[in-house]
Amino acid sequence: MDSQPVLSPAVDPGRTIRTIKTRIIPFILLLYVIAVLDRTNIGFAALTMNSALAITSRQFGFLAGIFFVGYFFFEVPSNLLLHRLGARIWLARIMVSWGVLATLGGLVHSAGQLYVLRFLLGVAEAGFYPGIILYFTYWFPRRERAQAVALFMIGMPLTSVLGAPLSGFILDHVHWLGFSSWRWLLILEGIPAVLAGLLTYFRLPSRPAEAGFLSPGEKQWIAAELAQEEPESQGKRRISALQVVAHGRVWLLTVIYFAFLTGWYSISFWMPLAVKALSARYSNTLVGILVMVPHLVGLLGMVFVSRHSDRTQERRYHTALPAIAAGIALLLQGATSSPFWSIVALSVATLGIYSFFGPFWSLPTEFLTGFSAAAGIAFINSFANLGGFVGPYAIGGITEMTGSVSHALAIVGLSFFVAAVLILLLPLESRPRAQTERQPPS
Question: Which of 32, 263, 340, 361 could make an SS bond with 155 (beta carbons 3.0 to 4.6 A apart)?
């Protein structure tokens, strides 16, 4: 019996996918830019905040990382609630609550108060990132997901390309009402999350069936495509949400992502301070511009690698090789004192980092669907994001011992090699064979 979905004569699959990408991804990208900005702008605030609040390198590492402790405890329940209540309602709740907390960060008067707010910020934002990964499984067939994830994750480099110069400018020029510039940085960059959360409630359809921009035939085609893939994913392994935590491949992906995020968040939070340390003559505005450069390079690499991964339907080497490149670049960055070569090394590192994400997040959705995908994606992301605590905190301790942020980044960057080795140990059957996939719409 032919298992291909029955198409209305008026339905063009390629056009339907392009319509979904055009209407969904730019809005999701905007939300993610705001999320990354509020999560990582503490790295820029540290350029003046640390001295104002007498925060040491070790304390700043703890401050950056404690966000992920709150994130860890609430990630899985948050993602399950998104699956049950709908993306429109739950993502709006997430954004409004974290926007309020991010803005309050500009009013603290001690490191202890900032610890509490950063922890609560992690609690509020828990579920956003894996929720988006899950959300894409409601809209995109498997062969389209790596590119969809990468287009969404352009928000990471794009945030730094736009936000780094903006943050540096605020630090140098915004001192309104007698408030320190680092306070205005946290306040001004927290308000958009509240506004975007309200917009999400009125603007974002939870499922294709709710999308006014799709015709009935297009909605039927998407539903048929995804329904056809679900038994393919579950046929060999029937995995319930509760069984996810005992699944070997889920744990292996979790350890891989933990090692990777240990290195990534170390760079994310500490890069402004590392660049500032290259020369005492650098203004905060110039630091913002220099930090922008590696992320711009990473943005271009992310799109190319994810497209190539989707085209070839190969995931392992498309994740392992970028991780290796990032590790090598950080080792070289720690070995040079040249500002020029340091920026080059950081650019190669971010190129590898951003290229990793799209292919990696295609791996769990190859064997998890529905409610088990909601649990599995959140489980991987929540445990692995503890690397966001380990890495930055380790950087703070190593920096205090060595007196060099660059050397600390080189040491913690070894985690990228660990991730790459574990990726290469993944069974080949974890990805679908290229010949079993229909060609993506042109």
Answer: 32
